[in-house]
UniProtKB/TrEMBL annotation:
The protein's name in its UniProt record: Aminoglycoside phosphotransferase domain-containing protein
InterPro entries reported for this sequence: AGP_Transferase, Kinase-like_dom_sf
Coiled coil: none
Source organism per UniProt: Lachnellula cervina
Gene3D superfamilies associated with the record: 3.90.1200.10
Length: 344
């Protein structure tokens, strides 16, 4: 079996709880984080609780992540999950700002999925030149079937927001810089299609057709398997030839480098951080330059872009990757994708 998915229904028992309800503010100094943790805010001069998992300073305040204490929560209302929530991805997860310096990212979880915190740690250890957010703490909330990732906030704009203010040369330079980071990441190769921990890969666009009743709350993972098995799998699910790739040397690649996952410096001259590493893995080499050229996730979003050319970033980035030596097999991939018939 090549693809794995967690079965869930439309009830809380399937998901633990809805992703957008995972973090709730009960009062200005108190949040619940899933089923097992709370976050408190105190004066910066107060002594840190002995049971604090992580603490950080934010102006004149100090925040602490602590084990859930039901006595502390007694007689309080249920809390409001909308406060501080800056992104919600249906039942799959959501993102909150806590205070001014920390991001809390919550995603659906099952045993087959790679932990984003582990991937970020791998990148930090192996590619110190690649700009990353700092992981403060992470954990798995098994009753909620969620992962919680506490990140130090990077105060920068997304490429999508910055785009209208960037000159043509700045846009090209950012594409070149990102292509350079991809080349750095590709310095690590594997003979297997898998995550850095040997788990399956989150990449819908290389899979067969999903079942009509497949739940959206738990994305399906593909693999893990060898490079040769990957090519055989792709051959079985399509009537067109598989794009060419070296089955013995699959480069490490962040496959979701759209304009909302790239943060740029205030002056627009450099990349401040690359975020959202959950889908990063060892991929067929053709995918590095081909995915930006063929996937809607690289599209610039209105109203921040001239609607006549929403794919300007995708074209600049893919072309920069080709200059770095990656092969863009757009036509071959589109033929393979358009004739997919096999199930995932």
């Amino acid at each position: 079996m090549f693809c794995r998915m967690a079965i869930c229904s439309n009830s809380k028992q399937r998901n633990g709880t809805a992703g957008g309800q995972s973090v709730k503010q009960l009062k200005p100094q108190l949040w619940t984080l899933g089923s097992s943790m709370i976050c408190t805010k105190a004066d910066a001069h107060d002594v840190a609780p002995l049971n604090s998992f992580i603490s950080w300073q934010d102006g004149n305040d100090t925040f602490h992540i602590l084990p859930r204490d039901d006595a502390l929560l007694a007689d309080l209302n249920e809390g409001d999950s909308a406060i501080g929530r800056i992104q919600e991805c249906g039942s799959g997860g959501a993102v909150w700002i806590i205070g001014n310096e920390v991001i809390c990212k919550v995603k659906s979880w099952n045993e087959e999925r790679q932990l984003e915190a582990t991937t970020i740690e791998f990148v930090r250890d192996n590619f110190p030149s690649v700009p990353l957010p700092e992981v403060l703490y992470s954990w798995i909330d098994r009753p909620f079937k969620r992962t919680f990732l506490i990140l130090k906030r990077v105060h920068a704009r997304t490429l999508n927001i910055a785009w209208p203010s960037l000159s043509l040369s700045q846009r090209q330079n950012l594409a070149n810089e990102m292509a350079g980071h991809c080349l750095t990441l590709a310095g690590k190769k594997s003979s297997r299609f898998e995550s850095v921990s040997g788990r399956g890969v989150l990449e819908h666009w290389l899979m067969g057709k999903l079942p009509a009743d497949h739940p959206s709350c738990m994305p399906m993972t593909l693999g893990p398997f060898s490079g040769l098995e990957m090519k055989e799998y792709m051959s079985k699910i399509s009537g067109a030839p598989v794009p060419d790739f070296d089955v013995d040397a699959l480069p490490f690649f962040h496959c979701d480098l759209g304009p909302t996952n790239i943060l740029v410096s205030n002056d627009g001259d450099s990349v401040a951080a690359i975020i959202d590493w959950e889908s990063s893995a060892y991929f067929p080499d053709f995918w590095v330059a081909t995915r930006p050229a063929t996937n809607w996730a690289y599209r610039l979003s209105e109203p921040n872009v001239d609607p006549q050319d929403p794919y300007e970033w995708a074209k600049l980035f893919s072309s920069a990757l080709v200059v770095k030596g990656f092969s863009c097999q757009e036509e071959a991939f589109r033929k393979w994708k358009d004739t997919k018939t096999g199930p995932a």
